[in-house]
Amino acid sequence: MEASGCSTPRRTRSNRGFTLIELLTVVAVIGVLAVVALQQLERYRRAGYDARALSDLRSAISAEEAYFATTRNYMSMNATGPGPAALPGLMVSDTVTVDMNASPDSFTGTSTSTDGTGKVMRYDSTAGWIGIP
To answer: Which among 3, 35, 55, 92 is least surrounded, fewest beta carbons within 10 Å?
Structure first.
């Protein structure tokens, strides 16, 4: 039993703030999540550039067929964006290179983006397909 007047005050932990360890843990977790998110964002960005190259190849195919319908010839050309290409109506996006190789009765085409993943989109008019590696 305590003597009267000789009680010692109890130390209680204040619940008004966070400890340094708790704050550092939260900062570390946020840092790890940010690194993972940035890596995924970079993959999505590169895939977007690949999609742009594929879209430009499809536009080049349409322009090549329209040119053939008018002149009865296919046109060989190489264009790097941004800007218009030798085929009428074809605009090539920035970072994209489109290459069309014509023969008298068919053509092939490729496109790639310098900022993409390095995939080369391919088209062969005799097979009628677009190949994506």
So the answer is: 3
**Nearest 5°: phi and psi at 98?**
-115, 135
Distance CA 24, CA 99 (A): 53
pLDDT digits (tens, 9 = 90+) for 75-128: 999 999 898 888 888 999 999 999 999 998 999 999 999 999 989 999 999 887
Distance CA 16, CA 61 (A): 67
Measured distance CA(107)–CA(124) in Å, rounded: 6
Distance in angstroms (rounded) separating the CA atoms of residues 39 and 83: 31
What 3-state DSSP class applies to 131?
A: strand
Q: What is the DSSP letter of 74?
A: -
User: First vs last Cα of the chain: how many Å apart?
Assistant: 84
> How far is it, in rounded angstroms, from Cα 27 to Cα 21?
10
Residues 74, 64 contacting (CB under 8 angstroms) = yes
